[in-house]
Structures are given as C-alpha cells and as structure tokens.
Amino acid sequence: MKNEKVLICLEKMGIGGVETAVLNQVAALSKRGVDCVVLAENGIYSSKVVEVGAKFIDFKFPLRNCIDGDVVKALVKIIKDENITQVHINQFPCMQYMLYACAFTNVPYVAYLHTGYDLIAREDDLNIFNWYCKQYPIFNELFPMYFRHASKIISITQFAKDYCAKRYDIDLDNILVCPNSIDFSLFAEDKHVNTNEKIFLSIGRLSKDKEESLFNTLQLYKRLKERDSSFKLQIAGDGESREVIEKYVEDNNIEDCTFLGQISNVPEVMHKAFIVAGVGRCIIDAIASKTLPLIVSKESVRDFVTKNNLNKCIEGNFSTSAIDARNVDDIIEDLLQITCERELEIVNENYNLAKEKLDINKNLFILDSKEVKYDIEELLNSFLNINHYIVKKMDEQTERLEHLEKDNSKIPEYLKQIDDLNEKLQAIYGSRTYKVSKKISNLINRKK
Predict the structure, then answer these.
(1) Does residue 220 contact residue 332 with C-beta atoms inside 8 Å?
(2) What are the tens digits of pLDDT across the range 330-346?
C-alpha cells in the first residue's frame, strides 16, 4: 500500500458530507504512508487536506453536456506528472472527464456512490440519476460506461448497491458496501458537560432545499428556549438562503442565536455543544464529538440518535428516512429531562457502537493497482455516440437559427402590412359611414 499514489477527485473542497468523508479518507491513508493528491476546486477544507499530509491541487470540473478535450488533457498531464497509480472518483461531475483520462493513461479508478436513500428512492426528476440524465443527456451514455469500467465501486449503503446494480446491470461482486466512516482520532475522546449553558448547534448548508428543515429546527429550539433559558443557538454553515434564515430568526423572535458561517474546526465546535441538529455526515461527526445527535427533515423533527436506533441510522446513512418521526412534544420532554449523567451515558454508548462499525481504519479501501479493466473499443464507441449526439443538437440549433433568420427577413414586409392596415382602420373610423353606423348601434343598445 505504501507504494501507491492515490488521486482523490471531487467537485470542491468546501463544507459537505462528501468533503468531510474525503478529508477523513485522506487522513487515514496518509497515516498508513500512502501518498494522496486531492483534486478539487479550492474551498474552506483545502488547507485541512495539507494539514493531514496530502497534496492539494486546485482544479475545476465543469459540468457540461459535452466532453471538454482540454479538461481531459489537463487531467492526463496531472496523472502522469504526479505518478498516480489509482484514482478515486467521489462525485459524478468528475467522472465525465476522469473516465477518459484514466483510460488514456491506463490507470484504474474506484467509483464512489455517496448516494443516500432519499436521492434514489423515487423514480421522478428528483432521482439523482434521472436528474443528471435530464439536465445533461450525455450522462445516459456516461453512467453505464463509468460503472462498467470501474475497477471497484464503493457504495455507502446496501440499498444504493442494489439499486445501481439493477439499473446499470453491474456485477454485484464489483460493488463493495462501505458505510460512511470517520477518523475518530480527529475528535476528542472525553466529554465535559457544561451545566451553565446548553449549546444547540444546527449545522449544514444554508440552501433552498434545506430551508424547511432549518425552520423545523428553529421552532424546536424556540420551544426548548421557552422552557429552559440556558439554551443557546448556533447555526454553522452558509449558502444562498442565509438571509432567509436570518429573517426567519428575527420575525419569529428566536433569542440567543449566533450565525457562525462556514467552519473548518467542526470537531471543536461540536464538542462544546449539547445537541447537534442535522442529517447525514454531520450526525456521524456529532457522535464522534460525543454530542447528542438530532435528525431533522423538511417534513418534521425525526428523533435524536441513541443506541436503540443507531444501527438503523447507519444502514440508512443517517438520512431523514433512516428513522421514523417521533412526536415532537415527546422529544422536547426527553431533552428537557436529560441529566448530565444521562447525557454522558447516551453519547458514550453512541460513540462506542459507532467506533466499532464506522471507524475509517476498518472501512478503508484501496485497490491493487494492477486491476485495470478498460475496453477501449467500447469507450471509443461511447465517445462517438456522445459526439454524434452533440453534433445532432448543434445541427438542430443551426436549423432553428436559420429559420429565425428567414422569419426575420420578412419582418419589414410584416411591418408594412401592419402600417397599411392601420391606415385603412383610421380611414374607416374617420368615415361618415362608420360614424352613422356607430350612432345606430348605440341607439339599438340603449333600447335593449
């Protein structure tokens, strides 16, 4: 493993579940002596990559309905210059370029499925695969090629494994289920309970699709605050909906609320909290921080995580559908009744069970770099199909433009016809015959 040099790709090294997973993966690999290079657009976590012993390269993967040859060439150069022996692809926008760059350099890649239940459970436009194929139709061709040529596919849940295997006819033996894991050494082991104030921490992107979840979180906090004044609210994260959330806080008189913005010291901030509200990766971080985790969805507050439902949460990747919603009044009463002793009991039980199942050192995957499986003829046909599709769309666009140009050439003629009609109408309206007809019509209408 020490002779391997791994290129890990994702869209941006900002704050998010995939980003945190990558950071933990890089930290664990670096400790084992594996050279890692992270390729992504620069973000708040970029410096953290360097801190844990890896190299960071600022690179943007443009999401387009075409294969940009210049992007592929740049990736080929990076793979060769860095002497990369295997590539780990974490997000779909990266794969439309990395697929070909890896094939051209004969370097194997691992395809990661960071796809929770909520993103694939339904077969409408909200299904993540349907969305990509509708917005960027070349993905209809790319997805099958991508999964078929992967030396290994890593899925964070059994559900995602079964779904993708069926949808894209993938050999089940080539998909490994590896739960979203964490490097527990990045988190403090001891929890010191603060009895003077209880920090209620909400963490996640402040985006449009998260607004309803945040509103539910804020309403829960407000009710807790009314019953126990020692609660203080912190909101970590940023996004296009920040002003909306700030206005909601003001309009609803939610007291003692602090917006932290984007944070990179997540373990430190979480460790001081009494409870962390969120979903997905931040729940794992909360457990590792020995803090009470609360799953909240856009529909409702679901429940806080204990040893009784933790296994179910792990199977569902801590998604909002991982556990059933419980009565919010009961949740509030339980939270208000938690003593310092009970708090320590819950967080330690969660921590010990999670460390047994979610320790990244037990769930770390790396390829035997000899595992290369490229069908160049199939990839070439796939590329030609994509190129044919793009040329067809360009031809259709050209036809539409030519049609518009023809229509535009008739505009002066249409304008002259309109002017002629206006002149005729004015002549009619000003004629004696029209005026007499109008008076007769008015008289008839009055008699009615």
Answers:
(1) yes
(2) 999 999 999 888 999 99
Query: What is the DSSP annotation of 120-144?
Result: HSS-STTSHHHHHHHHSTTHHHHHH
**Beta-bridge partner residues of 9:** 39, 89
Specify which residues 176 forms β-bridges with. 154
Is residue 170 within 8 Å of 148, Cβ to Cβ? Answer: yes
Residues 424 and 428: their CA atoms lie apart, in Å, by 6
**pTM for this prediction:** 0.78
Distances (CA, A) of 29 to 14, 120, 203, 330, 369: 20, 30, 27, 43, 15
What totals of helices (H) and strands (E) does the chain contain, helices first?
18, 13
CA-wise closest residue to 219 among 195, 202, 241, 242: 202
Task: Measure the CA–CA gap between 67 and 138, rounded to whole angstroms.
Answer: 9
Q: What tens digit of pLDDT does each residue of 204-222 get?
A: 888 888 889 899 999 999 9
Q: Could you tell me which of 315, 364, 7, 8 has the C-alpha nearest to residue 183?
A: 364
Q: How far apart are alpha carbons 314 and 322 in whole angstroms?
A: 8
Say what the pLDDT of residue 404 is.
60
Residue 270 φ/ψ region, left for φ over 0, alpha for ψ in the -120 to 50 degree band, beta for the rest:
alpha
Q: Return the biggest CA–CA distance within the chain.
A: 102
Radius of gyration of the chain (CA): 30
Structure tokens at 56: 């960071």
DSSP assignment of 171-227, as one string?
A: -GGGEEE----B-GGGS-S-----SS-EEEEEES---GGGHHHHHHHHHHHHHHHHH
In order, the DSSP letters of 348-384 are: HHHHHHHHHHHBTTTS-----TT-----HHHHHHHHH
Residue 316 predicted with pLDDT over 90 = no
| Residues ≥6 apart with Cβ < 8 Å to 144 | 168, 169
- Residues 6 or more apart from 36 whose CB is under 8 A from it? 5, 6, 8, 26, 29, 30, 53, 54, 55
